[in-house]
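can u do me a favor
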Protein backbone atom coordinates (compact mmCIF):
# COMPACT_ATOMS: atom_id res chain seq x y z
CA UNK A 1 0.00 0.00 0.00
CA UNK A 2 1.39 3.38 -1.00
CA UNK A 3 1.72 6.35 1.32
CA UNK A 4 -1.29 8.16 -0.15
CA UNK A 5 -3.53 5.18 0.60
CA UNK A 6 -2.23 4.98 4.18
CA UNK A 7 -2.90 8.67 4.75
CA UNK A 8 -6.54 8.34 3.63
CA UNK A 9 -7.14 6.01 6.59
CA UNK A 10 -6.04 8.56 9.21
CA UNK A 11 -8.87 10.48 10.84
CA UNK A 12 -9.56 12.66 13.88
CA UNK A 13 -9.61 11.37 17.48
CA UNK A 14 -12.79 10.10 19.15
CA UNK A 15 -14.40 13.15 20.82
CA UNK A 16 -16.92 11.01 22.71
CA UNK A 17 -14.15 9.01 24.37
CA UNK A 18 -12.40 12.27 25.28
CA UNK A 19 -15.58 13.65 26.86
CA UNK A 20 -15.96 10.49 28.94
CA UNK A 21 -12.33 10.73 30.07
CA UNK A 22 -12.83 14.37 31.07
CA UNK A 23 -15.91 13.35 33.07
CA UNK A 24 -13.86 10.66 34.84
CA UNK A 25 -11.23 13.23 35.83
CA UNK A 26 -13.92 15.58 37.17
CA UNK A 27 -15.28 12.76 39.34
CA UNK A 28 -11.92 11.85 40.92
CA UNK A 29 -11.71 13.12 44.51
CA UNK A 30 -9.00 15.73 44.09
CA UNK A 31 -8.87 19.40 43.06
CA UNK A 32 -9.96 19.89 39.45
CA UNK A 33 -7.18 19.87 36.81
CA UNK A 34 -4.56 19.61 39.56
CA UNK A 35 -2.36 17.22 37.56
CA UNK A 36 -2.23 19.75 34.76
CA UNK A 37 -0.87 18.60 31.41
CA UNK A 38 -0.82 14.98 32.59
CA UNK A 39 -4.61 14.99 32.87
CA UNK A 40 -4.95 16.50 29.42
CA UNK A 41 -2.66 13.84 27.99
CA UNK A 42 -4.78 11.02 29.41
CA UNK A 43 -7.85 12.62 27.83
CA UNK A 44 -5.99 12.88 24.53
CA UNK A 45 -5.00 9.22 24.69
CA UNK A 46 -8.64 8.30 25.24
CA UNK A 47 -9.46 10.13 22.03
CA UNK A 48 -6.58 8.54 20.16
CA UNK A 49 -7.53 5.01 21.11
CA UNK A 50 -11.28 5.57 21.14
CA UNK A 51 -11.54 4.15 24.65
CA UNK A 52 -11.89 6.10 27.93
CA UNK A 53 -10.54 3.04 29.77
CA UNK A 54 -7.01 4.11 29.02
CA UNK A 55 -4.28 1.47 29.17
CA UNK A 56 -0.76 2.07 27.90
CA UNK A 57 0.12 -1.63 27.90
CA UNK A 58 3.66 -2.19 26.63
CA UNK A 59 5.85 0.85 25.93
CA UNK A 60 8.35 1.20 23.08
CA UNK A 61 11.16 3.60 22.27
CA UNK A 62 12.02 3.73 18.57
CA UNK A 63 15.40 5.34 17.82
CA UNK A 64 15.91 6.26 14.17
CA UNK A 65 19.62 6.29 13.31
CA UNK A 66 21.06 7.90 10.17
CA UNK A 67 23.93 10.02 8.91
CA UNK A 68 23.67 13.43 7.30
CA UNK A 69 25.83 14.62 4.44
CA UNK A 70 25.66 18.18 5.73
CA UNK A 71 28.48 17.35 8.18
CA UNK A 72 30.82 17.88 5.21
CA UNK A 73 30.21 21.60 5.70
CA UNK A 74 31.87 21.55 9.14
CA UNK A 75 28.73 22.20 11.19
CA UNK A 76 29.51 19.65 13.93
CA UNK A 77 32.25 18.95 16.45
CA UNK A 78 32.43 15.27 15.53
CA UNK A 79 32.38 13.19 12.37
CA UNK A 80 29.93 10.63 11.03
CA UNK A 81 31.78 7.75 12.67
CA UNK A 82 30.13 8.69 15.98
CA UNK A 83 26.69 7.82 14.61
CA UNK A 84 27.76 4.23 14.02
CA UNK A 85 29.40 3.91 17.45
CA UNK A 86 26.37 5.20 19.32
CA UNK A 87 23.98 3.12 17.21
CA UNK A 88 25.93 0.00 18.09
CA UNK A 89 25.88 1.08 21.75
CA UNK A 90 22.09 1.07 21.62
CA UNK A 91 22.14 -2.58 20.66
CA UNK A 92 24.41 -3.39 23.61
CA UNK A 93 22.22 -1.40 26.02
CA UNK A 94 25.07 0.96 26.94
CA UNK A 95 23.62 4.28 25.78
CA UNK A 96 21.97 6.84 28.06
CA UNK A 97 18.51 6.20 26.62
CA UNK A 98 18.87 2.44 27.19
CA UNK A 99 19.65 2.95 30.87
CA UNK A 100 16.70 5.30 31.25
CA UNK A 101 14.45 2.92 29.31
CA UNK A 102 15.25 0.14 31.78
CA UNK A 103 14.08 2.39 34.60
CA UNK A 104 10.96 3.40 32.66
CA UNK A 105 10.03 -0.19 31.76
CA UNK A 106 10.29 0.59 28.07
CA UNK A 107 11.57 -1.67 25.29
CA UNK A 108 14.17 -0.13 22.97
CA UNK A 109 14.13 -0.54 19.19
CA UNK A 110 17.17 1.01 17.44
CA UNK A 111 16.67 1.34 13.68
CA UNK A 112 19.39 1.68 11.05
CA UNK A 113 17.55 3.72 8.45
CA UNK A 114 20.59 5.45 6.99
CA UNK A 115 23.83 5.05 8.94
CA UNK A 116 26.86 5.61 6.71
CA UNK A 117 28.61 2.48 8.05
CA UNK A 118 27.61 -1.21 7.71
CA UNK A 119 27.28 -1.67 11.54
CA UNK A 120 29.05 -4.97 12.14
CA UNK A 121 29.55 -4.78 15.93
CA UNK A 122 25.95 -4.88 17.08
CA UNK A 123 24.76 -6.63 20.22
CA UNK A 124 21.66 -8.58 21.18
CA UNK A 125 20.44 -6.55 24.16
CA UNK A 126 18.32 -4.43 21.83
CA UNK A 127 18.54 -6.03 18.37
CA UNK A 128 19.04 -3.63 15.50
CA UNK A 129 16.15 -3.20 13.07
CA UNK A 130 17.74 -2.90 9.64
CA UNK A 131 15.70 -0.65 7.33
CA UNK A 132 18.56 1.20 5.63
CA UNK A 133 17.40 3.30 2.70
CA UNK A 134 20.91 4.42 1.78
CA UNK A 135 24.28 5.00 3.48
CA UNK A 136 23.61 8.53 4.67
CA UNK A 137 22.24 11.54 2.82
CA UNK A 138 23.98 14.02 0.54
CA UNK A 139 25.19 17.49 1.51
CA UNK A 140 22.10 19.66 1.06
CA UNK A 141 24.28 22.71 0.48
CA UNK A 142 25.17 21.19 -2.90
CA UNK A 143 21.78 19.76 -3.83
CA UNK A 144 18.89 17.79 -2.31
CA UNK A 145 19.71 15.61 0.68
CA UNK A 146 17.94 12.68 -1.01
CA UNK A 147 15.35 11.95 -3.65
CA UNK A 148 11.65 12.29 -2.95
CA UNK A 149 11.33 8.54 -3.47
CA UNK A 150 13.95 7.85 -0.79
CA UNK A 151 12.19 10.18 1.64
CA UNK A 152 8.92 8.37 1.03
CA UNK A 153 10.61 4.99 1.51
CA UNK A 154 11.92 6.16 4.88
CA UNK A 155 8.47 7.41 5.90
CA UNK A 156 6.94 4.08 4.88
CA UNK A 157 9.59 2.24 6.91
CA UNK A 158 8.54 4.21 9.99
CA UNK A 159 4.87 3.48 9.37
CA UNK A 160 5.56 -0.25 9.06
CA UNK A 161 7.50 -0.28 12.35
CA UNK A 162 4.62 1.45 14.14
CA UNK A 163 2.19 -1.08 12.68
CA UNK A 164 4.38 -3.98 13.78
CA UNK A 165 4.61 -2.64 17.32
CA UNK A 166 0.85 -2.24 17.47
CA UNK A 167 0.43 -5.86 16.40
CA UNK A 168 2.81 -6.91 19.20
CA UNK A 169 0.65 -5.22 21.81
CA UNK A 170 2.50 -1.95 22.36
CA UNK A 171 0.26 0.88 23.50
CA UNK A 172 2.55 3.90 23.19
CA UNK A 173 5.68 4.81 21.22
CA UNK A 174 8.38 7.24 22.33
CA UNK A 175 10.50 8.76 19.57
CA UNK A 176 14.28 8.99 19.57
CA UNK A 177 17.03 9.60 17.04
CA UNK A 178 20.76 9.45 16.51
CA UNK A 179 22.63 11.11 13.68
CA UNK A 180 25.55 13.50 13.73
CA UNK A 181 24.42 16.70 12.00
CA UNK A 182 20.72 16.23 12.63
CA UNK A 183 20.24 19.47 14.56
CA UNK A 184 21.29 21.16 11.32
CA UNK A 185 18.78 19.24 9.22
CA UNK A 186 16.11 19.79 11.88
CA UNK A 187 16.75 23.52 11.98
CA UNK A 188 16.49 23.66 8.20
CA UNK A 189 13.21 21.74 8.23
CA UNK A 190 11.76 23.92 11.00
CA UNK A 191 12.91 27.11 9.30
CA UNK A 192 11.05 26.12 6.14
CA UNK A 193 7.90 24.72 7.74
CA UNK A 194 7.49 27.66 10.13
CA UNK A 195 8.62 30.19 7.51
CA UNK A 196 11.15 31.54 9.99
CA UNK A 197 14.72 32.80 9.49
CA UNK A 198 17.39 30.14 10.19
CA UNK A 199 19.06 32.22 12.90
CA UNK A 200 15.85 32.15 14.93
CA UNK A 201 15.59 28.36 15.02
CA UNK A 202 19.22 27.23 15.03
CA UNK A 203 21.18 26.34 18.16
CA UNK A 204 24.58 24.97 19.05
CA UNK A 205 23.49 21.31 18.92
CA UNK A 206 26.00 19.10 20.70
CA UNK A 207 28.25 22.13 21.17
CA UNK A 208 29.52 24.81 18.80
CA UNK A 209 31.49 28.02 19.27
CA UNK A 210 30.02 31.36 18.24
CA UNK A 211 31.90 31.02 14.97
CA UNK A 212 30.62 27.48 14.48
CA UNK A 213 27.05 28.55 15.14
CA UNK A 214 27.33 31.38 12.62
CA UNK A 215 28.60 28.93 10.00
CA UNK A 216 25.77 26.52 10.78
CA UNK A 217 23.20 29.26 10.19
CA UNK A 218 24.91 30.26 6.95
CA UNK A 219 24.92 26.65 5.72
CA UNK A 220 21.20 26.26 6.46
CA UNK A 221 20.38 29.53 4.73
CA UNK A 222 22.37 28.51 1.65
CA UNK A 223 20.81 25.03 1.56
CA UNK A 224 17.31 26.47 1.65
CA UNK A 225 18.18 29.03 -1.02
CA UNK A 226 19.69 26.42 -3.31
CA UNK A 227 16.97 23.77 -2.94
CA UNK A 228 13.85 25.94 -2.56
CA UNK A 229 11.81 23.39 -0.54
CA UNK A 230 8.03 23.80 -0.63
CA UNK A 231 6.74 24.43 2.90
CA UNK A 232 3.31 23.12 1.88
CA UNK A 233 4.82 19.74 0.93
CA UNK A 234 6.34 17.86 3.88
CA UNK A 235 7.97 15.21 1.70
CA UNK A 236 9.60 17.87 -0.45
CA UNK A 237 11.07 19.55 2.63
CA UNK A 238 12.37 16.24 4.00
CA UNK A 239 13.96 15.23 0.72
CA UNK A 240 15.65 18.56 0.08
CA UNK A 241 16.96 19.66 3.50
CA UNK A 242 16.00 16.86 5.91
CA UNK A 243 17.44 13.52 6.88
CA UNK A 244 16.54 9.85 6.85
CA UNK A 245 16.18 9.78 10.64
CA UNK A 246 13.64 12.62 10.44
CA UNK A 247 11.76 10.90 7.62
CA UNK A 248 11.66 7.65 9.60
CA UNK A 249 10.26 9.50 12.61
CA UNK A 250 7.64 11.10 10.38
CA UNK A 251 6.58 7.56 9.56
CA UNK A 252 6.34 6.69 13.26
CA UNK A 253 4.02 9.66 13.84
CA UNK A 254 1.88 8.78 10.82
CA UNK A 255 1.88 5.10 11.79
CA UNK A 256 0.79 5.98 15.31
CA UNK A 257 -2.12 8.00 13.94
CA UNK A 258 -3.00 5.18 11.55
CA UNK A 259 -3.00 2.66 14.43
CA UNK A 260 -4.79 4.97 16.90
CA UNK A 261 -1.76 4.87 19.18
CA UNK A 262 -0.11 7.79 21.02
CA UNK A 263 3.37 8.84 19.94
CA UNK A 264 5.57 10.90 22.27
CA UNK A 265 7.68 13.66 20.73
CA UNK A 266 11.06 13.77 22.44
CA UNK A 267 12.67 17.14 21.77
CA UNK A 268 13.67 19.53 19.00
CA UNK A 269 14.70 16.93 16.43
CA UNK A 270 11.66 14.71 16.84
CA UNK A 271 9.65 17.93 17.02
CA UNK A 272 10.94 18.88 13.57
CA UNK A 273 9.80 15.46 12.34
CA UNK A 274 6.42 16.04 13.99
CA UNK A 275 6.02 19.30 12.05
CA UNK A 276 6.77 17.47 8.81
CA UNK A 277 4.28 14.72 9.72
CA UNK A 278 1.59 17.34 10.31
CA UNK A 279 2.43 18.97 6.97
CA UNK A 280 1.87 15.60 5.29
CA UNK A 281 -1.27 14.76 7.31
CA UNK A 282 -2.82 17.40 9.60
CA UNK A 283 -4.59 14.75 11.72
CA UNK A 284 -1.18 13.34 12.73
CA UNK A 285 -0.78 16.08 15.37
CA UNK A 286 -3.88 14.77 17.18
CA UNK A 287 -1.96 11.59 18.03
CA UNK A 288 1.13 13.29 19.48
CA UNK A 289 2.13 14.01 23.07
CA UNK A 290 4.97 16.35 24.05
CA UNK A 291 7.37 15.08 26.68
CA UNK A 292 9.51 18.14 27.39
CA UNK A 293 10.79 21.49 26.19
CA UNK A 294 14.12 21.17 24.44
CA UNK A 295 16.77 23.71 25.36
CA UNK A 296 17.37 24.34 21.64
CA UNK A 297 16.24 27.88 20.67
CA UNK A 298 13.17 26.70 18.74
CA UNK A 299 12.07 24.10 21.29
CA UNK A 300 9.06 26.05 22.53
CA UNK A 301 8.34 27.46 19.09
CA UNK A 302 7.91 23.99 17.59
CA UNK A 303 5.63 22.77 20.37
CA UNK A 304 3.51 25.90 20.13
CA UNK A 305 3.14 25.44 16.38
CA UNK A 306 2.02 21.86 16.95
CA UNK A 307 -0.42 22.87 19.69
CA UNK A 308 1.34 20.58 22.18
CA UNK A 309 1.91 21.22 25.89
CA UNK A 310 5.04 19.65 27.43
CA UNK A 311 4.99 17.97 30.82
CA UNK A 312 8.69 18.48 31.64
CA UNK A 313 10.85 21.59 31.53
CA UNK A 314 14.29 20.51 32.71
CA UNK A 315 16.70 22.03 30.21
CA UNK A 316 17.19 18.71 28.42
CA UNK A 317 18.75 18.45 24.96
CA UNK A 318 20.36 15.01 24.76
CA UNK A 319 18.05 13.41 22.22
CA UNK A 320 17.92 9.62 21.79
CA UNK A 321 14.41 9.72 23.30
CA UNK A 322 15.68 10.57 26.79
CA UNK A 323 13.10 13.31 27.36
CA UNK A 324 10.28 11.03 26.25
CA UNK A 325 11.54 8.34 28.62
CA UNK A 326 11.60 10.80 31.53
CA UNK A 327 7.98 11.65 30.74
CA UNK A 328 6.58 8.11 30.56
CA UNK A 329 6.69 7.35 34.32
CA UNK A 330 4.88 10.64 35.01
CA UNK A 331 2.22 9.66 32.51
CA UNK A 332 1.81 6.25 34.15
CA UNK A 333 1.48 7.85 37.59
CA UNK A 334 -1.32 10.10 36.36
CA UNK A 335 -2.97 7.11 34.68
CA UNK A 336 -2.92 5.23 37.99
CA UNK A 337 -4.76 8.12 39.63
CA UNK A 338 -7.22 8.27 36.74
CA UNK A 339 -8.00 4.56 36.89
CA UNK A 340 -7.96 3.76 40.61
CA UNK A 341 -8.59 6.81 42.78
CA UNK A 342 -11.92 7.08 44.60
CA UNK A 343 -14.57 9.47 43.34
CA UNK A 344 -16.27 12.25 45.28
CA UNK A 345 -19.45 10.17 45.28
CA UNK A 346 -17.69 7.08 46.63
CA UNK A 347 -16.26 8.93 49.63
CA UNK A 348 -19.43 10.99 50.12
CA UNK A 349 -18.06 14.50 49.79
CA UNK A 350 -19.25 17.34 47.62
CA UNK A 351 -17.60 17.69 44.22
CA UNK A 352 -15.51 20.73 43.36
CA UNK A 353 -17.29 23.37 41.33
CA UNK A 354 -15.55 24.68 38.25
CA UNK A 355 -15.19 28.43 37.79
CA UNK A 356 -13.83 29.85 34.57
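np, heres the sequence
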Amino acid sequence: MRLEEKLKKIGPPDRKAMALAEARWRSVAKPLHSLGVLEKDIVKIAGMTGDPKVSLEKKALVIMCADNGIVEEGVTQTGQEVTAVVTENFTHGNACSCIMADMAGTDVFPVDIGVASPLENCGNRHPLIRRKIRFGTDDFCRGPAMTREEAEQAVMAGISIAEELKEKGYGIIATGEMGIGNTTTSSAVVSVLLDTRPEQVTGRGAGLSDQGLAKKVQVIREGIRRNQPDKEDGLDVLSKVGGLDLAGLVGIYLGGALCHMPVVADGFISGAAALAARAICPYAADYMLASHVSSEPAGRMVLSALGLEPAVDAGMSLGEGTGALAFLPLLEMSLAVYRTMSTFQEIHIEEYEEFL
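The radius of gyration is 20 Å. hope that helps!!
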